[in-house]
Amino acid sequence: MNELLIHTDNEKREIGELTEILIQNIEGGILSEAYAYIKERTVNAIAEGKIMRDALGFSPVITDMQTAVLVGHEIGFQNEIITSILLNRCVNAGTATIDEIKDIFGENVTKILNNLIQINSLYAKSPTIESENFRNLLLSFTNDMRVILIMIASRLVMLRGLFDSDNEEARRLVERLGEEYLAWFEYMLRRKAGM
Length: 195
Fold this sequence. Notes:
mainly alpha, Hypothetical protein af1432, 195 residues
């Protein structure tokens, strides 16, 4: 069962460190208004109990920030990608709307978010992809390679968090996520080969 999200002192420190990394590295910088919007919507979602710890006890806020940093290091700190990652849970929680985001951040952020929302709706049913049909359905949702890379990075962040866990359920999840990675990589290789 998910529990309310109250960050520990260590988690608060980690959020501060991740925030600094993101602010310092986002291409073109992040406007103070954009940062304030993301922070306000996230804080509101937490206060309303709409963003809670996940089933394994992780903070989704930290997970999203770690994903954003990982994506930034691997494919670049592109403003629209990082913004999309950080706003995704706010949209899911209802503290931000797609129309509002389109007005403030533009079409690119909205496009990425719409694809992330579709994929997240599938993952809400199961944290792993368990059948070939489900994999194919998931992969057909997006032609935007950025979204696929975001999802891979998100799963890698989850794997890193689970890897050190003593929880047997977490270890089984790591094994299933490993199989999921193979499907993602096969898909990317087929796309690169033009198949």
